[in-house]
Amino acid sequence: AEAAAEQLRLYQRDPGGWRGCRSTGEVAVSWRPSAEFTGNLYRGEGILPGSPRDVWECIKPVAGGLRTKWDQNVKDFEVIEALTDTVSVCRTTTPSAFMRVISPREFVDVVVMKQYEDGTMLSAATNVEHPLCPPRPDFVRGFNYPCGCICIPVPG
């Protein structure tokens, strides 16, 4: 989990190679080739009109949190095992898509939540196997490389 958090911070600090692919008035999405796997990394950036604490409440990965209410790609989020107060093993499920052509997915990750001195809040996750969370027959087991969300306070 700590390695995933550090990888996320490295992505954040490294401006090189990112290419814009989509943009609205609120969010800009960019990509670059991954050095870890065959494929691309994607990042979305936006400034939200709310306090960092309020934004964090909407995105933090906790059971019963707000993410399942607003994010159509997250059907359920459950904690399989809390290892510490900031690190846990979690299962995230996604709904089927494209008129059920794409099967529902489940992801099992070790997740860490951190807050830094500058007020930045981060959740980072990466794939893990856990004996209390075997694959379920109605889901395709997905695999996450280091990923997550970073909430950075901006002046004003």
From TrEMBL:
The keyword Signal does not apply. GO terms for molecular function: cholesterol binding; cholesterol transfer activity. Residues 1-156 form the START domain. One of its GO terms (biological process) is cholesterol import. It comes from the Eukaryota. Keywords: Lipid transport, Lipid-binding, Transport. Signal peptide: none annotated. Pfam families: START. PANTHER family: PROTEIN CBG07384, STAR-RELATED LIPID TRANSFER PROTEIN 5. May be involved in the intracellular transport of sterols or other lipids. May bind cholesterol or other sterols. This is STAR5 protein.
